[in-house]
Structure formats: structure tokens, C-alpha cells
Amino acid sequence: MAREVTLVDAGIGNLASVERALIQVGAGVRVTDDPDKVATSRMVVFPGQSAFGAATQAIVDGAMGAALRMVIERGDPFLGICLGMQLLFDGSDENGGQEGLHVLPGRCRRFPLGLEEDAEPGAIERPMDPAAAKPDDVAPPQSVAEEPLSEAGAEAGGASVLTSPADEPVSSPDAAVPSPPEWSGSTVNEAGYGTTITVDDLPDPSATLPAAEPQPESAPESDIDRPRLMRRIKVPHTGWNEVEPTGDHYYFVHSYYVEPARTEDVMWMTRYGGIRFPAAVRRGNVMGCQFHPEKSQRAGLRFLRAFLLGGWG
């Protein structure tokens, strides 16, 4: 028999993809925005895909926040996803500072701008060449540059006269075609209407050319001498990250990360831009993940299945 899970619709999450993922791992899903139904649920998943602000403050201070605390205090399994995990903590620096549910001690911090991290092994820096400067005396394509004034033009009031290919005289078909330049070498013999080039005076192809002097081999550049190649990270953090200690990769989308006050609340860790932060947290019946399990393919489904069965991934 499928275990029933209540999926909280608080207006801050992508419910459809989370619902499909839970059904795929064997859950019976009930979606509700009713705090009374949430309060009586035996297993709750609280997704979030937004930001701390007026909407989250309404949840924290309202009936939905009270219902979520009731489930947690009663000891029933609770999973917060992304913003749903961040709301479990004391608050966030986002939007001037916002309060959380105060279930776990800690605060959400923003990834600083301008952070850099080591580039991937084998990455090569390819600086872009600046565009070649165009000389001042070079006319632009399809030039309409003015021609010098002719005497007639000057007498006509100083207006410049532009010529175009249509103004040029057209040669008649009977006009004589210019002859090609004559070959001045000793290997040219006139032969009827054309010329024949002989190879009497060409060098013997079997002749041995002088051997080129060997060039000294340059010593290979060692990793010690090569400067560290860095890449600037982007905020928000969007993409796949390896999670410690499982080694699995999960999909993240966030600009803020949790800075917990208790290390024992951290289940998994990951790194972005040189900052290590919790990828997942747990304490008693409460669990949270910064990544999106519903977007993390097989690893995400395994995570949801473990929560459904009472495990922790």
C-alpha cells in the first residue's frame, strides 16, 4: 500500500514536478494549501522555489507556519526542499533580513559576487584577440566616400560628383582583349597560339637538400611553473554539484546557502566557489535538502525513496 504524503501548496514551490517524482517512488500524494489538513498529516513535504520576503513571512507568522511546526513537534517525518529547507532555520539575509521557522539554528547567506574557483583539470585559457583596428584611410564597405571635385564640379557650385559602375563606359564585345604578359625566362618557346614551359632549367628533384640544423627541444612546462587557471562563478548557483560523502550529483538552483549553527545538523556537504555549505540537513524527524531531488534524476529519486521509507539517503 502506498504511503500517503501531504505536499504543501504554500504558493512558493513547483508542485507538479515534485508530485510526479513522489508518485514515481511509490507515494500517494495529497496536495493541499489548507493548514488544518497539513497539521493532521503523518508525512509532509514542503517544497520552495522562491525567495524570502512577504510570502514567506506570511507563512512563518500565519496558520501554515503553525501547522508545519505542529507536524515537526509531533515527530512526524518532514522534508523541506530548497527554500523549504532554508525556512527551517532562524532566518535569511535576503531582502533586508527575514525570519524563518526557527526549527534549526542558523542563517542563510548570499554567495558573494566575484568569487573564483579552480578551473576543471585540462582547461585551457583562450583569451579573445581584440578586434583589429581599422586604419583611418580605409573606406568602409560599400564605400560612398566623396571623390575630389573636378573642375566641372567646382564650377557647378562645389558639389561632389560620385561615380558608380553604371557611369563607367562599357567596352564593346569587339574590343581587343589585353594580351597576358610575356614569359621572360629561357624556358619559354613560342608554339602556335600559346606558350610552352619546359623543365630544362628546373632543379633536379632528386638532388639532396641541405639538412636543417636541429633545433633545441624546449623543456616541458611543469604544473608548478604554470599559473593556476581560475574561473569566475555565477550567482545564482545553477547546475549539477557533487555531494559529499555520497559522490552523487544533484541539481541546485539558489543564490543563498545555509550557514548552520550546529555541525551535527549537517548530513551532506557540497562546494561552490570555494564555499562549503550543507547540501542536506537532518535532525530527528526533520530533513531538508538544498538541491532539487525532483530534478536530480536517479539520485534524486533514490533520495525521495529513502525519505519515504524512513531512511536518510
Describe the structure.
Helices cover 18% and strands 26% of the residues. With 313 residues, the chain is α/β, with parallel strands linked by helices. Strands 2-1-3-4-17-16-15 form a 7-stranded mixed sheet, sandwiched between helices. A 4-stranded mixed sheet has the order 6-5-7-14, covered by helices on one side. Helix 3 packs across helix 4. Mean pLDDT is 79; it is low at 138-168 and 186-193.
**Mean pLDDT, nearest integer?**
79
Shape verdict:
elongated
Q: Can you summarize the main beta sheet?
A: 7 strands, mixed
Q: Indicate the percent of residues in helices.
A: 10-25%
Key terms for this structure?
17 strands; 4-stranded mixed β-sheet; elongated; alpha/beta; 7-stranded mixed β-sheet; 313 residues
Give a nutshell description of this structure:
The protein is an alpha/beta fold. Helices cover 18% and strands 26% of the residues.
Could you give the topology of this structure?
Elements: E1 3-8, H1 15-24, E2 27-32, H2 35-39, E3 44-48, H3 54-61, H4 63-74, E4 78-82, H5 83-86, E5 91-92, E6 98-99, E7 106-110, E8 116-118, H6 151-155, E9 188-191, E10 194-197, E11 230-232, E12 237-242, E13 249-254, E14 256-260, E15 266-272, E16 275-283, E17 286-289, H7 297-308
Parallel strand pairs: 1-2, 1-3, 3-4, 4-17, 5-7
Antiparallel strand pairs: 5-6, 7-14, 8-11, 9-10, 12-13, 15-16, 16-17
Helix pairs in contact: 3-4
